[in-house]
Amino acid sequence: QQASLASAQAAAANSTEDGEKRVAFCYKRGIKISPQKLNEAAKLVRKMHISDALINMEIREKKPAKLVKEALKSAFANAVNNHGMDADKLFVAECFVGKGRHLKRIRMHGMGKSAMMKKYRSHLTVKLEESETVEAKTKVVRPLLERPISVRKGRAQQ
């Protein structure tokens, strides 16, 4: 009886009254970067344990990785402090980028001509969930462009 009571309490702690899993979100709106660039970093952390995702973004020095890391930290803080979720069971259920409102500016060219220039904005959404099955397994891989050319082309270094 105690085992069934403990499993019922664990299930109740893992879900709301409606039987759905508890989730935590972070929304970053109007980020000053193009959606394509931000999505390159966002797709690296999808379906990852939160600690793996933070480590993965920590080792990258690019601006999109820094922005995704900030959103992950914010969603993690929301999950632990506001929703009382277990920090060891959190994983990134969704991490997606939306197109924000872009600003139109004039770019001057030679001989009195001009053109329209767009300054892009993005929206970033991070959704964290609790899961019993997802475990932290840190696997750090250097990005392809930072590797030596001989490794990129598939040849072993000699």
TrEMBL record:
Keywords: Ribonucleoprotein, Ribosomal protein, RNA-binding, rRNA-binding. It comes from the Eukaryota. GO terms for molecular function: rRNA binding; structural constituent of ribosome. InterPro entries: Ribosomal_uL22, Ribosomal_uL22_bac/chlpt-type, Ribosomal_uL22_bac/org-type, Ribosomal_uL22_CS, Ribosomal_uL22_sf. It holds the Pfam family Ribosomal_L22. One of its GO terms (biological process) is translation. PROSITE patterns: RIBOSOMAL_L22. Gene3D superfamilies: Ribosomal protein L22/L17 (3.90.470.10). One of its GO terms (cellular component) is mitochondrial large ribosomal subunit. PANTHER family: CHLOROPLAST 50S RIBOSOMAL PROTEIN L22-RELATED (PTHR13501), LARGE RIBOSOMAL SUBUNIT PROTEIN UL22M (PTHR13501:SF8). Belongs to the universal ribosomal protein uL22 family. This is Large ribosomal subunit protein uL22c. It comes from Tetraselmis chuii.
